[in-house]
Structure formats: C-alpha cells, structure tokens
Recover the amino acids of this structure.
C-alpha cells in the first residue's frame, strides 16, 4: 500500500500530464489552475511525510510549506513562484476575477509556469527522496 506522501505525488504526476495537455491545447487559465494543484498536492506530500498528519484542507501554498517545515528551505525565487501561483486557485474560479486574470496570460508565460511547476515538483520529490 502506498503511503500518503506517495499518494499525493502520484496525483501530482497525473495532474502534470493534464496541465501539459491544457497548455498544448492553449487552455491557459485551466492550465494555471492545475499547476497550482500540483504545487499544493506536492506540499501536502511534504506535510504528510514530515508531520505524519493528514494535511490541512487549505489551498494556501505558503501555509502548507510552513506546516511541512520547508518554508525556510525555499529560495526567494520559489517563494515568489508560489505567490504567483496563488491567483490561479481562487481568482480563476470566479467570473469577476477570471476575465482579468485571463487577460494577463500568454502562451509563453504559461509555458514558463508549467516548466517551473515541473521543477518545483522535482525539488519536492528530491526532498522526499523519491
């Protein structure tokens, strides 16, 4: 049976495939949402592994990093990256924000978000020895 951290990471791997399909299909806002999910689930893997607890039901990436005890391990670049992912979780769901967020997206920007998400997931896996 898989441990909780492995289960979270398996979901990340599946979501990464979905994010790539969305990027290739130029479905940019949903791709951003999936990148946030990948970061969130990878941090929940850290929380599960490092605390032995079920991760809290939050979408706040910084709180998850703190709860997992790795916030201080993040580079400033990674902290900025997580901050930049946050709007895709909430703003992308609500019409009053969604249109404004969509206007800021280009394929190139989203391609970079995807690449950085993949790097972040790899970093998390390294921290977990996976």
């Amino acid at each position: 049976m898989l441990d909780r951290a492995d289960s979270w990471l398996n979901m990340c791997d599946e979501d990464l495939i979905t994010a790539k399909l969305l990027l290739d299909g130029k479905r940019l806002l949903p791709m951003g949402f999936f990148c946030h999910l990948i970061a969130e689930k990878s941090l929940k893997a850290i929380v599960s592994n490092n605390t032995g607890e079920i991760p809290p039901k939050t979408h706040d990436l910084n709180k998850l990093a703190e709860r997992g005890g790795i916030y201080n391990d993040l580079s400033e670049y990674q902290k900025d990256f997580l901050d930049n992912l946050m709007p895709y979780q909430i703003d992308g769901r609500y019409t009053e924000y969604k249109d404004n967020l969509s206007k800021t997206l280009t394929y190139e920007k989203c391609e970079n978000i995807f690449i950085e998400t993949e790097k972040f997931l790899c970093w998390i896996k390294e921290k977990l020895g996976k």
